[in-house]
């Protein structure tokens, strides 16, 4: 079989910057020293303080990724569960769900009232005191907006904020962190209308950058709640706009092939 | 409702480093100047050369993320398709698949002969010359091992290598880059047996770090094939071991709730 030969490389047509010039360099780091979070704690203030204590400072167009757990704790989304009774956890999961997709042993995959499809409706017993479970925030996009507004007020910076959680996937083992809310950053970047390097229009290239950013942040966080916040610096200007996980990224059941 | 109070924070028990000490800082950058790839091109050699031309140098325990497209081109995985006949593409997709999961309009979700579940069996018409389609490598883990061996020979470095591709997901809109092969790096990091920050054992915390790394790399790549390689520097020592996407990360149909 003959391989295609080289052909001229046209310029990108719109939207996309020309990466040949200078692709971004991202720096990703974890924020330590935030400590245990309680109800009504000022998450933005604690983040700003912890970053300052580390000797760092936030800058405009940094992306601040905050794990759901501390957001839920600050928002009082803790409910009591009886650790000796598995039904107790299951009842909480069902109250958070609008639809059960699959059940096996003690794993339930549900669609949550927020529209997410995940294990056990995101109800989490780890990193919370025995006898309690952490629910997802009521509206994680709103949570992200509040933290973004708080960081503007506290630190004078205009940043993107992502609220992240750890989800499983169909077809692939292992968990990754994804975005359940965002503010000040696009959830999806639409590269349709760009041309590929051979000059043909690209199709179906909406990239979920907030999920990729949440995953990048997880890499510096570890799972033990000691690094509940990470910062990603160096993203290009065109990432930053009004963004929203619920409207942009949550796939409505009607357009979903797997519900 | 009363919130749980603060409790002592125990040390991690095994495996996991104590992130309080110093969480990693990751630097992610794109490699430009690799140019069009043809059959039998030495991908490792071209990567090493392009990085040197950029004024950078690889270091031990860097992670080198290489997009599937250039691997497929170098391995000669190009097949002719008739761009005027949609059946032509469909026949190629079916030849690459062992099972069709869903079909809607011109989108087919299949299980490929490699075990991946993705759109159109990963057969890609973008960034290849009209009249040709790029198939997935036969064994992307082997491809990653070859590139890793080549970088050791060419640049004298011991790196992790990930071959990445762009997949859609169930339940969430948008695409993200994931790993379809890896070498010299764990596909999954098992944090089970760690304790959470309140001292209870964590369950089900196998993190797919190669998928998170592939996503992080996509953020500096863009979609137009001009930045087909990225480097992630700063990962902790415990990421690096013999790794394998096929055995660690591809979920066998029997344990999959969505097949």
What is the strand arrangement across the widest sheet of chain A? 1-12-2-8-9
The figure for the number of domains of chain A is 2
Biggest interface, residues from each chain: A-B, 99 and 98 residues
Shape of chain A: globular
Strand elements of chain A, count:
12
Rg value of chain A: 20 Å
What would you call the structural class of chain A?
Answer: alpha+beta
* CATH evolutionary superfamily of the largest domain in chain A: CofE-like
Query: pLDDT below 50 for ≥5 consecutive residues: which ranges of chain A?
Result: 1-20
Order of H and E elements of chain A:
EHEHEHEEEEHEEEEHEH
User: If you consult CATH, what is the topology of the largest domain in chain A?
Assistant: 60s Ribosomal Protein L30, Chain: A
Number of helices of chain A: 6
Distance between the termini of chain A: 41 Å
Main beta sheet of chain A: strand number and arrangement? 5 strands, mixed
Instruction: Please state roughly what percent of the residues of chain A sit in beta strands, choosing from under 5%, 5-15%, 15-25%, 25-35%, 35-45% or over 45%.
Output: 15-25%
Average of per-residue pLDDT values of chain A: 86
CATH top-level class of the largest domain in chain A: Alpha Beta
How is this structure best described in words?
2 copies of one chain form a homodimer. Chain A has 259 residues and is an alpha+beta fold. Chain A folds into 2 domains: 27-70 and 138-250, 60s Ribosomal Protein L30, Chain: A, CATH 3.30.1330; 78-136, CofE-like fold (Alpha-Beta Complex), CATH 3.90.1660. Helices cover 24% and strands 23% of the residues of chain A. Chain A has helices spanning 43-53, 68-74, 86-96, 140-155, 209-221, 245-248; strands at 25-31, 63-67, 78-80, 97-104, 107-112, 117-119, 132-134, 160-167, 176-183, 189-190, 206-207, 229-233. In chain A, strands 1-12-2-8-9 form a 5-stranded mixed beta sheet. Chain A has a 3-stranded antiparallel beta sheet with strand order 4-5-6. A two-stranded antiparallel sheet of chain A has the order 3-7. In chain A, helix 1 (43-53) packs across helix 4. The radius of gyration of chain A is 20 Å and the shape is globular. Residues 1-20 of chain A have low confidence and may be disordered.
């Amino acid at each position: 079989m003959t391989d295609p030969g080289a052909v001229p490389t046209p310029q990108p047509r719109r939207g996309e910057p020309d990466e040949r010039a200078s692709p971004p360099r991202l720096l990703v780091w974890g924020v330590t020293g935030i400590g245990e979070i309680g109800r009504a704690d000022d998450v933005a203030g604690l983040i700003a303080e912890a970053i300052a204590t580390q000797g760092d400072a936030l800058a405009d167009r940094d992306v601040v990724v905050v794990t759901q757990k501390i957001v839920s704790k600050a928002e009082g989304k803790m409910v009591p569960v009886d650790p000796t009774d598995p039904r107790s956890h299951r009842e909480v999961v069902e109250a958070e769900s609008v639809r059960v997709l699959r059940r096996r042993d003690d794993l339930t995959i549900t669609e949550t009232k927020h529209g997410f499809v995940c294990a056990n409706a995101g109800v989490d017993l780890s990193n919370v005191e025995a006898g309690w479970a952490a629910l997802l925030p009521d509206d994680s996009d709103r949570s992200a907006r509040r933290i973004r507004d708080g960081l503007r007020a506290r630190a004078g910076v205009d940043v993107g904020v992502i609220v992240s959680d750890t989800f499983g996937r169909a077809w692939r083992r292992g968990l990754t962190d994804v975005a359940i809310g965002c503010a000040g950053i696009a959830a999806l970047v639409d590269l349709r209308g760009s041309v590929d390097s051979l000059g043909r229009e690209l199709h179906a290239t909406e990239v979920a950058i907030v999920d990729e950013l949440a995953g990048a942040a997880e890499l510096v966080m570890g799972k033990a709640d000691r690094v509940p916040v990470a910062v990603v610096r160096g993203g290009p200007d065109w990432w930053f706009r009004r963004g929203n996980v619920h409207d942009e990224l949550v796939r409505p059941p009607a357009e979903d092939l797997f519900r």
